[in-house]
């Protein structure tokens, strides 16, 4: 296995990825994010990886992974590399070893409900951890013997960062987010650690993703620095919203791709996403390949937009 923490190797080409969670069927928000990531990568001649984020044992299933591939293929997307995040456990644990050796890990027994009861809002819309267990040490046998979750001791101070679109990602993650969980109490590797380690292992140089993940970027930069891996360039795009104003999400019952496919073919829905995104003035059918000819981020809308299911 290649060492994801070895910075001596330089990636010969741009490398990008799309990393949806396989916790349910693809929905319009998933598809527009995949389309924009694909258009960006193909327009730049970058290698494009489909990484299926399936480390949550409670929600992710092989069937959801198969359905995600099917949905993206139906839309007309392709990829150069296909990987499962769950297959990278060894690299995730090596990162925990590295962080533990630097004194940056500590065990935490606080439940989610206890954190929520503190009532401290985090920048990502969740609940900020107070640091109640921050002074705790790992057991003598190391992090593998720790009960409960494992958290990262964030440094004090502000991370100054802007993404390619000019979006200000600067943040004091300790004050605005709180120490993040890196390994859950059930043993599952948490998002923040997995995404940083996997991006490094795949030598990803560029990340295109929805604006809902922008508030996580400063934590990712802190982790990248702690692990000694490069920081990719970032671009965050608009979101599709529900009628209530929240982001389209699997957990909220957003319309799944199979229902969309029962009313439209791939080019038909791709054309609609192109219109919603600002890439086309109308919703005439189009394949992703056809959209490549005049793709430019300057033409992509910057404001979020409500997606109305009946219009599928």
Question: Which structural traits does this protein have?
Answer:
single chain; 312 residues; alpha/beta; 3-stranded parallel β-sheet; 3-stranded antiparallel β-sheet; 10 helices; globular
Structure description:
The structure is a single chain. By secondary structure, the chain is an alpha/beta fold. The protein is 31% helix and 12% strand. The protein is built from 10 helices and 10 strands. The chain has helices spanning 28-44, 62-75, 89-101, 112-117, 173-176, 191-201, 217-227, 257-261, 266-277, 288-292; strands at 15-18, 47-52, 81-84, 105-108, 149-152, 181-183, 206-210, 233-237, 240-241, 305-306. The strands form 4 sheets. It has a 3-stranded parallel sheet, with helices on one face. β2 (47-52), α2 (62-75) and β3 form a beta-alpha-beta unit. The longest helix is centred in the N-terminal third of the chain and has 17 residues, at 28-44.
N-C termini distance: 44 Å
Number of strands: 10
**CATH fold description:** Rossmann fold
The rounded Rg comes to: 20 Å
Tell me the helix content.
25-40%
Work out the count of structural domains.
Answer: 1
Order of strands in the sheet with the most strands? 1-2-3
Question: How do you describe this structure in short?
Answer:
This protein is α/β, with parallel strands linked by helices and 312 residues long.
Secondary structure layout:
Blueprint: E1 15-18, H1 28-44, E2 47-52, H2 62-75, E3 81-84, H3 89-101, E4 105-108, H4 112-117, E5 149-152, H5 173-176, E6 181-183, H6 191-201, E7 206-210, H7 217-227, E8 233-237, E9 240-241, H8 257-261, H9 266-277, H10 288-292, E10 305-306
Parallel strand pairs: 1-2, 2-3, 7-8, 9-10
Antiparallel strand pairs: 4-5, 5-6
